[in-house]
Amino acid sequence: MPDSAPSTFIIPDRLTIPTIAKRRAASGPLNAGVAAAADVEAFKGRTQHLHKPPAKRWCHRLTDETKARKGSSLKEAARFLETEGLISLGGGLPSSEYCPVEEMTFTVPKVFSTGVVSDETDVITAGKRDLARGVSMFDVETAFQYGQGHGAAQLLRWMVEHTELVHDPPYRDWSCTMTVGSTSAFDMAMRMFTKPGGWILSEEYTFSAMTETAAPMGVRVAAVAMDENGMLPDALDRLLFTWDETVRGGPKPFIVFTVPTGQNPTGWTQPLQRRRGIYAVAQKHDLYILEDEPYYFLQMQPYAGPEAPAVPPPTSHEEFLKSLVPSYLSLDTDGRVMRMDSFSKVIAPGSRVGWITASEEICQRYRTHADLSTQGPSGVSQLMLFKLLEEQWGHCGYLDWLIHIRMEYTTRRNVILDACERYLPKDVVSWNPPAAGMFLWLSVDYKKHPDYRRKSLEDMEDEIFHKIIQYKTLLMKGSWFCPEEGAKPDALFLRATYAAASRDKIQEGIKRLGEAVKDSFGITAEVNGSS
Ligand code: PLP
Fold it and tell me: What CA–CA distance (Å, rounded) separates 357 from 262?
């Protein structure tokens, strides 16, 4: 378990009870109709942040494109729609009469306290005119209409409150705005901060889509060495300290992209001390951190070994939240972090809904961009998530769901680790038990390969990759996750995931992997003793 999260978390019960309910009562009813602008400040605790310092300004780092964005005048005009008695002949919004959806109904599992999910289900319904009928704050008519780039105020409020509960950012003017998932948020952040010919920094193995987004923008990625606790502060410091613009052909980078929890592809998680170390280097070199955290809530129970009894789930929401490694956002006294949250790994990737948390300056720029590009996530998804998270589960019900997910992933992780212990030749393949996420990073000692002196590492990796397919299993090549163009890896890794296959198939897949590796390395069962 990580060392302590800030101990001042106050976890209110469902939305109906004290803290948030009181705040909501004080701020009055949320009247958010068609394309309503959201006042994020009003969603935050009024007094909770006043004593905190303001965020650092980043204007000097923003691209000309971002600074030139004036926003959408048509969306600006939407604020007059709230005017009493107003007849709008202005906005090009189709009448909801011509939206053929009268009602949306979906079925979800019942979640009981502390992560127990039953076989029983709840049916959730959203009607076309629930808002006008006074039965809900959000409805089909509003959600399926054009909206603001920051997303619907109804759902955004839930996100702001959730962010406050989990991270309580330590500066005053933090804000949130919705995204079409973290892939889009990263793309937009790149356009906000980077120019062709520039560099950004990331872990030496990283999410390949990030590199693939940066490359066509003319932005290169400098790899920072890592160990099983993630990016190494000393390596980051050294890389920046010794940065040579002439050799690199570009200025010293100021953006660091990191996946601190259950990193893709390694599955490694930065403990609190490591995060503090990286943050200190970011302060020293005045870096801006893009914290990409789709796996944050896939933090699992500790792995105690193949024979060890299962570790029981957290017994309360408070215990659950305290068990999470504090985020960069929660350490961000300067306002130098843009955190990207996503529902992709905990509800549904196809929802295409997430949100960023950053200083108001950055969020405002992001919204201005979103108004003229994505126009916010799909209203269908937003309505579904609102109904589920706000009206059905509330904050505590969502935490129950997350505890449930945690326990499911813990079981899956344990299954793959047990299978590895059983079937893999340990003199050739090694791994660290992941504490979060959905990936297991397997290190293959290529120096023991019979062709070690004859073949390049690349060819050996390719041979092993195809051998595994021959044994009817698929793993990803580690080299696919190397972000720095031309930098040749000097290790051989394979990425396996335990997220989707059934438990039987995970075991069978690892068994086949073991056979493929033994075949490739010419290991006989008797010699290895681990068949
Ligand atoms: N970031 C990382 C590190 C990922 O591994 C993934 C998905 O695999 C994403 C972002 C994608 O997130 P989203 O679905 O929110 O775009």
Answer: 20
